[in-house]
Design goal:
By secondary structure, the protein is an all-beta fold. The chain has no helices and eleven strands.
């Protein structure tokens, strides 16, 4: 079982910046890939960015060049630095992490509760 605690969401003006954090805790052996997803009202949840334990990253085309994902393996924490924010970035942002309870077991995906990001004047 993995619990993901998010912070950093809020209201920001277009062109502004926001930094999201997500820390994993609970009973697990290790955390694998981590990432951020978002869901706007009436739309499906979509991938924003992911990062592996080796720090390989992947970004959605809509955020590439504006968002940066990073992680601190020692703290089991993933970050999302969001710059040049646009109104279309408005959504609930969800943290995701792959965790395994013991050595040799399979990774299971876990989700945070989500944090609201609103980009508006």
């Amino acid at each position: 079982q993995v619990q993901l605690v998010e912070s950093g969401g809020g209201l920001v003006q277009p062109g502004g910046s926001l930094r999201l954090s997500c820390a994993a805790s609970g009973s697990f052996f290790s955390i694998g890939a981590m990432g951020w997803y978002r869901q706007a009202p009436g739309k499906e949840r979509e991938l924003v960015a992911t990062i592996t334990t080796g720090a390989n990253t992947h970004y959605a085309d809509s955020v590439k060049g504006r968002f940066t994902i990073a992680r601190d393996n020692a703290k089991n924490t993933v970050y999302l630095q969001m710059d040049s924010l646009k109104p279309e970035d408005t959504a609930v942002y969800y943290c995701n992490a792959d965790g395994r309870r013991r050595l040799g077991s399979s990774y299971i995906g876990y989700w945070g509760h989500g944090t609201q990001v609103t980009v508006s004047s």
